[in-house]
Fold:
Amino acid sequence: MEDYFSFLESNRTKFPEGVFEFAYNFCHYDLSDPSSLHDAWLNHLVLRENGTGDRKQFRSLALELEFLGPFHDKLLQFDYSGVTGFSMQSKDGAPALLNGCGDVLMHEVRLSDGGLVEHELQFSSSVVLTITCSTFRFESVNN
Structure:
């Protein structure tokens, strides 16, 4: 974790402020914290295509994730905007999605080659979810 936090600190100005605050907050990785993503369960994933302009012709993607927290007392909500890419696949090619994603084992916020935000989440079923976006917002809500 020390290398990860050093990376975040050295790239602080390259991250949107809210994204850095989330990523650099140790409670989101601490196994004993109710706001940790470790052991959280995915409740839903929603992909939205938003339109602006006279005919809604200017399109953009947004993605929303909601997790039941590891102690089942919080909802952990992410709202990703300016989504330019996402993938959800089994790491080993197995049909893991048939039984859901399972618990979040680890997650990491990093920068793409183009300087966008990447959030990767690895689940106990071997599913890996990666989202590339311009920014995201996080909220922890009592369940």
